[in-house]
Structure formats: structure tokens, C-alpha cells
Amino acid sequence: MSIIPLLLPLVEQCAKVPNSGMNESIRCWSNIPFITMPLSRAHGKSFAHRSELKHAKRIVVKLGSAVVTRGDECGLALGRLASIVEQVSMLQNQGREMMIVTSGAVAFGKQRLRHEILLSQSVRQALHSGQNQLKDMAIPVLEARACAAAGQSGLMALYEAMFTQYSICAAQILVTNLDFHDEQKRRNLNGTLHELLRMNIVPIINTNDAVVPPPEPNSDLQGVNVISVKDNDSLAARLAVEMKTDLLIVLSDVEGLFDSPPGSDDAKLIDIFYPGDQQSVTFGTKSRVGMGGMEAKVKAALWALQGGTSVVIANGTHPKISGHVITDIVEGKKVGTFFSEVKPAGPTVEQQGEMARAGGRTLAALQPEQRAEIIYRLADLLTDQREEILLANKKDLEEAENKGRLAVPLLKRLSLSTSKLNSLAIGLRQIAASSQDSVGRVIRRTRIAKDLDLEQVTVPIGVLLVIFESRPDCLPQVSALAVASGNGLLLKGGKEAAHSNQILHHLTQEALSVHGVKDAVQLVNTREEVEDLCRLDKLIDLIIPRGSSQLVRNIQKSAKGIPVMGHSEGICHVYVDTDASVEKVTRIIRDSKCEYPAACNALETLLIHRDLLRTPLFDQIIDMLRVEQVKIHAGPKFASYLTFSPSEVKSLRTEYGDLECCIEVVDSVQEAVDHIHKYGSSHTDVIITENEKTAEFFLQHVDSACVFWNASTRFSDGYRFGLGAEVGISTSRIHARGPVGIEGLLTTKWLLRGNNHVVSDFSEHGSMKYLHESLPLPQRNTN
């Protein structure tokens, strides 16, 4: 007998509970007021992209047996269940309508029955055979239906106790295949579920395994209206379509759908699965527990997708991700396999990563003059196609201004001009000229023994991911450096520069086509979130962010197993010493702060020696800043010297990125160094003085990537350093520091050339001895 008709009186009784006069948009079930969210959408077509999943209103979460049960298949995984309940409760409290299709009754019942059998046997054997026979007790094979009957009540009690912690009510519904095939029972089920959802109650559905008949033959997955409920995968799919749900989340013990059985050497996780792709997948065996395997899940998922419900299959057992897997999926993050009916026009980002790696290896195998030819060609295209580039950039500027989403400093970074393009072309030609011996250069030679020579040579890092905001001029610069260093490249630009990036990437690929390596540089145009890109540790070898400090921090936080090169902030200092030249001070400060205040190498904090206060030099500095309309913030010590001071700085660790700066007072060069170490970002710091001894002390003791004497902070730049361009400025302690050009995009490998050498020949009684002689390096190509 189905339990559905029995639930209807309970539902009707609950519906009569008064709402205490509360507004109709507020629910008061589960003893707390509940404010709903406008999440509704017309059902009929599934979501086309992951980013749309955040609009899902009605969601079914299917918990596989491997998710719910412990590894010993006897008892429940309480920690995982508690986490799942917490996530479902969170989404329910956002105004979504959550339903759970759960396994676990058999496992829970098995645990209870084993306990009862052991207890009964131990009493009998203690009475008849003595304690020494207890260890020989055998537990009989338990019938699954009996286990289900014994476990259903306990499983539901557990769910109720967990949901009560979040003031949410749960209701149990047991179904069989007959409940879907009998029209009256189907209507009862539908009505019960809708009424429960209306009252903010989470329905917990399971097949009634205590009485469930075997599945009907030849009736499985024959059409939208027919699916045999033979396991919880098919139950979840049938329920999702019946209830017109927006999203079905199927949690199992694998990360998602792979193109071959997980664990095999070439198995790759499929990010998006499309109907018709089944031929490209080889299914393995089912999980350690449960009725179905991945093939059953895919069939059920495709059936639900055909019925208008989006589906994601993901891992609900992994300890690092299971604590937020459901909420991550709803937020649109790249978790598991997303089933979609809409195929993108271009390649996926995973395919682009593979294309970039293959193209990069081909690029690295070219002759140095061939790589240089590609860069020269790109430089020519920047000037030859100037009008088309500026027209595309004008579209970006107009759209940004109309939407009002960019601050003035970012608009300046977005803007291209004829002079910028000319400077870009000059920089690219410098890169081409200096790249002749970058890849494959021998940097060390050692004779290990007779006829056994070792070389250390430069090689590309692999595939670079460069994420940049607002600055389309970054694209050709980084592309040229990648070509020169033989690296594959993935580029992710901001939406605000879409038109500019598109044409610049097109020109880059045109230049690469000169030697057939068009795929080495890829522009990511799909809806990939930056956080998702940072997880592609098998495709990407180095991430280089170019943008705001917030962008860099977010990427450093999101990167999973991939090194990040860059700096999170550009808090640059200029220290004016007592022996500073009057003529140099205002020129250097003006250039450092006012030439391009949005740059990461612009002055942010001006340190002035205490003896210079109330001197003509100090007055000149203040007058110049006022003329340039620089807003001044006073540091704590500087403010203490003034009767009427400018606004006191909120933090000495501030990157203004505009015509603003902080002024602070120090008592000595040592105090200036200490201030920089405490509040700086290890980017670029300057001393202005005529005292060489003081200058050298500053240069040697300031621990920053760039330290200058009597020169503007703005010189901290790859082009001005003669590197041609830079992929960014690194404040890291390892590999590369400061402006990063070609050298920073290379690593090394070791080449050993021998003649039948084995290590045993060098043992105590062996015939050979180590020489370890340094050999001269081959002459570098300076042409």
C-alpha cells in the first residue's frame, strides 16, 4: 500500500495552521518566519549554461548509496549527511524548494539487524556453549527487504533530527513503480509534494524497498512519459520531471562522468555532457553499493534533461568538496558533469588548454628566427590594422561609459590610442630581437665523468594562463612574450574589453599562422569563471594575473595546485632624505605620482625626513601636489606636527590608484626602511638623496623587487628595463622578481649524454671516478 494517501490528511491539517497575520510573502512553517525569494522561471527548457543554475527554484538532490553509507556498507556516513542537510537547509532558507531522494535504509537496517542478531546469538551461546564460543559466531546473510523495513524509520528519524537544527520540517514519502503508473496514485503523489513544498517542508523520498517489486521488463527509458523506477537514479529523474523541477543534482562517489572508467590511465572528467555523446563514453562497473552504476545515472540524467530538467552528476563523498558541493553547483561553479542540450559554438576551455599545450610544444621546436618572425609580424599588424583596432576599442569605451561600470582609472587603462599602438609595436620588436637564444640556451655544462657530460638548458614553462582586466594592450604584449619563450598561452580578458581583445587575438593568430602554430595562443570566450579556470591544474602550469589587487588576491586564493606569479598590491614609496636635491625632488615625485596614477608602479606613500618639515623644499612639494590636484592624506606622525592637517589616513597600506597619496614623517633612513618593510608591498621603493652612503644603505636594506636611487618609481616596467614588455611585476621570492620578461617565463631541464654508463661503475670498488669538471658554455648569439 502506498503511503501517499495517508499523508494527505496530515498535509491538510498542516495547511490549517494560522499565519499569525503575517504578510502573504512570509512563510511561518517550522516555527520561524521565512521570507521567499523571486526565483521562479517558466519550466519547459533546461538551463543552457552552468551560470544559469543560480536561478533554479525547485531542486531535487539525489543521494546515492555510496554517499549515504559508510565504507563498510553497514551504517550511515553521519558527517556527510550532516553536511548535506546543512547545504539543503541553506538553499531552502533562500526561498528555493528542495527535495531529497535518498538511499540508506538498507544500510541502516543492516546495521540494526546485525546488532540484534549478534546480541541474540551472544545470549544463546553464553547460556549453552560458554564465552569461548562467541568468537565463532557467524552472521547470516540479511535479506535486503528486511533490512529496508528495519532501517526506514531510523533513517527518517535521523533526517528529522538534523533538519530540526535549522528549524526546517521534513516529511517522508515512500514510493514504488506502481505509484507512477497508476494515474490516481500519481495525482496523489503530485498533490502531496506540491502541498509540502508550499508549506516550506522538505520532502524526503525513497523507494519502498521493503515491498518494491522487480522492475517491469522493456519499459525503461522508452520516452518522456515512461521510466521504470528500479533504483533511486530513475526515481529521482522521474520525480524531477513529474514535479517540473529546474535542477537535479545526483551525488555519487565519483567526480562526475568520465570518458572512460575512472582510475584508468586516460580517463578525463567530462565537464559538459550533451545528448548523443554516449558513444564517446566507456562505462565501468557500478559503485561498491547501490542498484545502478554510472550508465544508469547517465540514462536517467538524459531522460530528465529531455523532460526539461537540468542535471549535474558530482562527487558527494570527497572530504575536501562534499562540504559545499551542492551550494557550489547551484552557484554555477565547475563541479562534476553538467548535462546540457546546447553545444557551444567553439571549443571548451579544456580543449583550448590542450590545443595551447600542443601548439606551445610546436612553437618551442621552431627555430629562434622563426619565433622572432612571428613577433615581427604581430608588430607590423598592430600598426597596419590600427584603424580596425581603434574602432573596436571605441565600442568598448562607449559601452563602458554607457553602463557606468568602470572608474576613471580603469577607463584610462581600457583606452587605446595611436601612440599606445606604436609603443606596443616598438616593444614587440625589442622582444623579437632579444629572443634569439632564449629557448634552449645552455646555462651550465659539467663533465660528470669521462664521456658523460651534463647540460642544463632553458625550456618553456608550459601553458600560461594570463587573466587581465581592462587593459587590451596586455594581450599582444603577453602573446609576444609567450611566443618568444615557446609557451602555450590561455588568455582571459575582462568583458569590458571584449571587442578590443577579439581583434587583437585575431591578429595574434594571424601572425602565428606564418609558421603554422595558430593554436598556441587561445582566448577564453566561454562563460568560464576565473575561479573555475584556476582549478585546471592538469592543463595550466602558471597563472599570471594582471589587474586590481582584489583580482590578484582572489586568484591566489582560488588557485588549486597552480603557482601564481604577480603582486597583490603596488604600494610604492618615495623617501625624501635630508640631503635630497631641490631640483630632483619635485620632478621625481610628480612623475611617480601624476604621470599615470592608476599604474601599479605609481607612488602611493611619500616619506619625508622630519628635518625637512617647514622648509622651502617641503613647501615646494606640497605646492606641486596641490597644482596637480593630488589629494593628500596625513600619516599619524605627520598629522601630529600640524595644527590643521589633511584628512588622516585610514590605513598606511593603501593603494589609491588615483591622484591621492599619503605623506608620513620619519626620523632617519633606517626608520624609512622599517616603514617600507612594515607597510609596503615589496614592489618598488625610491630614495632621493645626494648622499651616496645613505643611498647605498637604502638600496641594500630595502627588501623589495625594485629599489631605485634618484629615479621615478615609474621606471619599474619591462619595456623601460629593456625587456621589450612584461607579463607583470612579481613580488614573489622565488623564480622571478620585479618586471617579468622572457627570462621569467623559462625554466630549465637537464640533458645527460653518456656511453653505456651505470651507477654501479662509480661504487667504492667500481672502475670509474666522478670528475665534476665545469665546462665552458657555448658562445651566445648576440646578433
Automatic annotation (TrEMBL):
Family matches, as Pfam families: AA_kinase (PF00696), Aldedh (PF00171)
Annotated GO MF terms: ATP binding; glutamate 5-kinase activity; glutamate-5-semialdehyde dehydrogenase activity
SUPFAM superfamilies documented for this protein: ALDH-like, Carbamate kinase-like
Residues in Aspartate/glutamate/uridylate kinase domain copies: 57-315
Any one GO biological process: L-proline biosynthetic process
Enzyme Commission numbers on file: 2.7.2.11, 1.2.1.41
Matches recorded under InterPro entries: AceGlu_kinase-like_sf, Ald_DH/histidinol_DH, Ald_DH_C, Ald_DH_N, Aldehyde_DH_dom, Asp/Glu/Uridylate_kinase, G-glutamylP_reductase_CS, G5K_ProBA
Keyword annotations of the record: Amino-acid biosynthesis, ATP-binding, Kinase, Mitochondrion, Multifunctional enzyme, NADP, Nucleotide-binding, Oxidoreductase, Proline biosynthesis, Transferase
Family: In the C-terminal section; belongs to the gamma-glutamyl phosphate reductase family. In the N-terminal section; belongs to the glutamate 5-kinase family.
Function: Bifunctional enzyme that converts glutamate to glutamate 5-semialdehyde, an intermediate in the biosynthesis of proline, ornithine and arginine.
PANTHER family: DELTA-1-PYRROLINE-5-CARBOXYLATE SYNTHASE, GLUTAMATE SEMIALDEHYDE DEHYDROGENASE
Protein's recorded name: Delta-1-pyrroline-5-carboxylate synthase
Organism taxonomic ancestry: Eukaryota, Metazoa, Chordata, Craniata, Vertebrata
